[in-house]
Design goal:
This protein is an alpha/beta fold. It folds into 2 domains: about 200 residues, Rossmann fold; about 120 residues, Aspartate Aminotransferase, domain 1. It is about 30% helix and about 15% strand. The chain contains 11 helices and 14 strands. The protein starts with a helix and ends in a 9-residue tail after the last helix.
Length: about 400
C-alpha cells in the first residue's frame, strides 16, 4: 500500500511537470536577422559595404564584422552611433573617426560632427547595412541614427539592408506621444515613449508615413517608396516575446533590469536628481543628497561610459530598483513619488538658460511640456495616463500597419 502511494505521488509530480518540460523542449530560440545569412549575404556579395553597427551586432559568439569578413564580404567602412563601436563612450560624448584595430576597417563616427553619412562617405560604397540592438524607448538615440542613415541612403541612391533585432520592450506601448515642437535627437517623430516596434518595423513606418526628409536633389524619386530597403526579419519572435540578451547595449544600461526600467527612469535625466550614472546600476539607482526618509544611499563616481555626470562624489539617498521588477508601463506613481520627495520643487527640473519650454531636457524626453506641468500641479497617475489615451489609441492604429511580427494584443 505504501509503495502504491509513493508510485502515485511520483506519477502526479511527473504529470505536473510535464507541461513545463514540453514547453521547454518546444520553445524555439529567437534568432535576430543577422543569423539569417542565406537571406542577406547574396545582397552583399561582390559589393562594397557600408555597415552601421556597434558591439551589440553579434551572430552567436562572433561580431557581425567578423562574420561578414569570414564570408568574403568587403566592408568598406563602419559607421558608428552614440557610444562608439565598442559601446564605451559616455552618453553625449562626441566620438571620432578612426581605424578598427582588430580588423583594419575604417570607422566613421555618426555621433560627432554629423549624424548621417555624407555624400563623400558613400562615394566608395555600393550598399548600406544596418544592425544594432535597440531597447524600444523613443529617447534612446539609435532610432534617430536609423532615420539619418535611411535619409543618406535615399539621398545617395544606395540600397539599404536592415538586419532586424527583437525589441526587449516590444511587448507594450505606453507614454505620451511626442509633439513636434519638442522634436530633437532624443525624439524625432510623433511616437510614444514606448512604441512597441523593432528597428525593422520602425524603418517601415518611417517610409510609410513619409517621415523621412526628402533629398534636395530633384532628380531622385520622391514618390511612393523612395528608398530601396530590405528588412531581414527575426525568427521565432513576436511581440509577446520577452527577449533577453547579455550584451549591454550602452554603458549605462548594464542589464535587463535597467533596460526594463529605462522608459520610466530616463525622465530623471531631466531633473537635478541622479539617475544612477556612475554606479553599477544606472537607471535603477535614483536619488539626491537632499532626499529625506530613505535609508538606501549610493555615491556616483567616474567609471567607463560615465566619466562625468551629476552629483559625483556626493551621497545620494533614494530608490534602489535593481532588484525590483519594472511594470509593463511607464511607472507614473514612481515619478510622482520622486518629485514629491524632492524638498525644493522649483529646483527639481534642470532649467535651460533660455527658459523656453521646448529647451527643457525633461520636456524633450517627455515629448511635451504637459507632463512637467501635470507633476507640478499634483495630478494623479490616473489623470496623467488618461491624458495620454487619445494619442496612444491613434498611434496603435497606425502602428498595426507596419508590424512584421504577431502583436501582443
Amino acid at each position: 500500500m505504501i509503495m502504491k502511494k509513493i508510485f502515485i505521488l511520483v506519477l502526479v509530480c511527473l504529470m505536473a511537470n510535464m507541461p513545463f518540460a514540453v514547453l521547454a523542449q518546444n520553445k524555439k530560440e529567437i534568432l535576430p536577422g543577422a543569423y539569417q545569412t542565406a537571406q542577406y549575404l547574396p545582397l552583399l556579395k561582390n559589393k562594397r559595404v557600408g555597415l552601421f553597427t556597434n558591439h551589440t551586432a553579434t551572430v552567436g559568439k562572433k561580431h557581425l564584422i567578423d562574420t561578414l569578413l569570414a564570408s568574403g564580404i568587403q566592408i568598406q567602412k563602419v559607421f558608428t552611433p552614440e557610444h562608439g563601436l565598442r559601446g564605451t563612450a559616455d552618453a553625449g560624448e562626441k566620438t571620432k573617426d578612426g581605424i578598427d584595430e582588430a580588423t583594419g576597417v575604417k570607422i566613421v563616427s555618426l555621433y560627432g560632427k554629423k549624424y548621417g553619412p555624407s555624400e563623400e562617405d558613400l562615394k566608395d560604397v555600393d550598399v548600406l547595412l544596418f544592425d544594432i540592438q535597440d531597447v524600444g524607448s523613443r529617447f534612446y538615440t539609435y532610432i534617430s541614427s536609423l532615420q539619418y542613415y535611411m535619409e543618406a541612403a535615399w539621398a545617395n541612391n544606395k540600397p539599404l539592408v536592415i538586419l532586424d533585432r527583437p525589441n526587449p520592450n516590444g511587448h507594450y506601448v505606453d507614454g505620451p506621444v511626442l509633439e513636434k515642437p519638442f522634436s530633437s535627437f532624443v525624439g524625432k517623430q510623433s511616437i510614444p515613449t514606448v512604441y512597441g516596434m523593432t528597428i525593422g518595423e520602425y524603418a517601415t513606418m518611417l517610409v510609410g508615413e513619409k517621415w523621412l526628409t526628402a533629398p534636395t536633389d530633384s532628380s531622385i524619386n520622391k514618390a511612393g517608396s523612395p528608398i530601396q530597403f530590405t528588412v531581414i526579419g527575426c525568427k521565432n519572435y513576436d511581440h509577446s516575446s520577452m527577449y533577453t540578451f547579455n550584451i549591454a547595449p550602452s554603458p549605462n544600461l548594464p542589464d535587463m533590469n535597467a533596460i526594463y526600467w529605462y522608459p520610466t527612469t530616463c525622465l530623471i535625466e531631466g531633473s537635478v536628481m541622479s539617475e544612477g550614472r556612475g554606479t553599477a546600476h544606472a537607471f535603477a539607482h535614483i536619488g539626491h543628497p537632499s532626499i529625506q526618509g530613505k535609508s538606501f544611499s549610493f555615491i556616483p563616481g567616474p567609471r567607463t561610459g560615465a566619466m562625468s555626470s551629476k552629483l559625483y562624489g556626493q551621497t545620494c539617498y533614494g530608490w534602489d530598483l535593481s532588484k525590483r521588477q519594472a511594470p509593463n508601463k511607464i511607472d507614473l506613481d514612481l515619478i510622482i513619488e520622486m518629485y514629491q520627495a524632492f524638498p525644493v520643487k522649483e529646483s527639481f527640473f534642470i532649467e535651460p538658460k533660455s527658459k523656453l519650454a521646448t529647451d527643457y531636457f525633461f520636456n524633450k524626453l517627455a515629448g511635451n511640456a504637459t507632463l512637467m506641468e501635470q507633476l507640478k500641479s499634483g495630478q494623479s497617475a490616473a489623470a496623467i495616463r488618461a491624458s495620454w489615451q487619445p494619442g496612444l489609441a491613434a498611434f496603435k492604429l497606425m502602428r498595426k500597419k507596419y508590424l512584421l511580427y504577431k502583436d501582443f494584443e
